[in-house]
Amino acid sequence: MAKQYETVIGLEVHVELATATKIFCGCSTKFGAAPNTHTCPVCTGMPGSLPVLNKKVVEYALALGMAANCEINRYCRFDRKNYFYPDNPQNYQISQLYLPICHDGHLEITTENGKKTIRIHEMHMEEDAGKLIHDEWEDCSLVDYNRSGVPLIEIVSEPDMRTAEEVIAYLEKLRMICQYLGISDCKLQEGSMRADVNLSVREVGSDHMGTRTEMKNLNSFKAITHAIEGERERQIELLEEGKEVIQETRRWDDNKESSHAMRSKEDAKDYRYFPDPDLQPMQIPTEWMEQIRSRQPEFQEERAARYEEQYGLPAYDASILTQTKHMADMFEQTADLCGNPKKTANWLMGEGLRLLKEKGMEAEDMDFTPKHLADLIRAVEGGKINQANAKKVFAKILEDDVEPLAYMEKEGLLMVSDSGAIEGAVDQVLAENPKTVEEFHSGKEKVLGFLVGQVMKKMRGKADPGMVNELLRKKL
Prior knowledge:
Blueprint: E1 5-16, H1 55-67, E2 71-72, E3 75-76, E4 79-82, E5 92-95, E6 102-111, E7 114-127, E8 131-135, E9 140-144, E10 151-157, H2 164-181, E11 193-203, E12 213-216, H3 221-240, E13 248-253, E14 258-264, E15 274-275, E16 282-283, H4 286-294, H5 300-311, H6 315-321, H7 325-338, H8 341-359, H9 370-381, H10 387-400, H11 404-410, H12 419-432, H13 434-441, H14 447-458, H15 465-475
Parallel strand pairs: 12-13
Antiparallel strand pairs: 1-10, 1-11, 2-6, 3-16, 4-5, 4-15, 6-7, 7-10, 8-9, 11-12, 13-14
């Protein structure tokens, strides 16, 4: 009988914090600036420069730790992690090993198999390294230090996940909490959320942990899923052939959908950690912790429950609308303005999500004024515009945040309520379709739909279908 294998997965997740300045200096953290323009002697590792801790980083770390049910180390400090790499200007990284700010937390995830608790070993604060840019034309590598010193929180889970589905559910939960807290936008494609996957396999029923590998360079949920599946298969194949899995760091290539070894996996001793002599240990006062706790937002589960109660939404709608804080804020503001929460939910979940998927956008990219969507919903409900044309207007609102009523008027999309104009079109259609009229009189009621369609065509879709139907019946 063939052996059955189980995958054991733990994650190291780096979240880039949305502070205005870096962790140990006053340089900007803004993404996308020209290379090496957001730098100073501290973040480029110049001799004699001294770090000064950004208080906001500690505040954000405490807020995330509380949201993830962690214990807080009231006394914590920074350590130096020593290693040489060209994008690491000091030849060490300031991180936390011995006394991280948060430890022993957990998050609850939901998958097809139900609810599961994923334990969090620790969370610690650290600085990011710079970025190497490989120039194939010149056959050289260039270093951009803009990212050097950008504040990170690293969240280290216990090896509690068994499938790619559980990994994605955990990452989505973590991303949602960070976005609700406002501490990070967690955009994987921009590197503000990065996940390293530690994976091993073992025979089902075994308590023994297999040899793990660490997978890096994973910048999308799709890449993470493929990397997990690919690495699981690779390790099982090695074991089936009687070979050993080597503990190493592997780099995932999204284009080739395969990984290759980068280096042997280091242990803590390889980094020669020691307490950072330039940074004082921190004592975290009770009053400060209580202030941060009192400012914690209403998270997804609480907000979804409130939407069911306050707006009368089905549980499914409430769950979808609260997946991101931005979408939830957009829904709430629009629903309050137009007084029609169900229609608001329908527009955002239906046409809104369809257009976002079509354009490859995230919910956070919806940057229109809630009043404009509220005005469009009121126009549809008031019979000023039909559904087909309203969809065109919504697409324009999503793209350029146009004022809907002005745009409808300019583009001639408003419904014609002039009964004289509609009656003229009805008379024309009846005159042009004598056979269809005869069929109607002989009892074929279904042909009425065809006649309504012909009138709407003449009116370029801008007539009230109810009025068209009524006039046709009257004439017939």
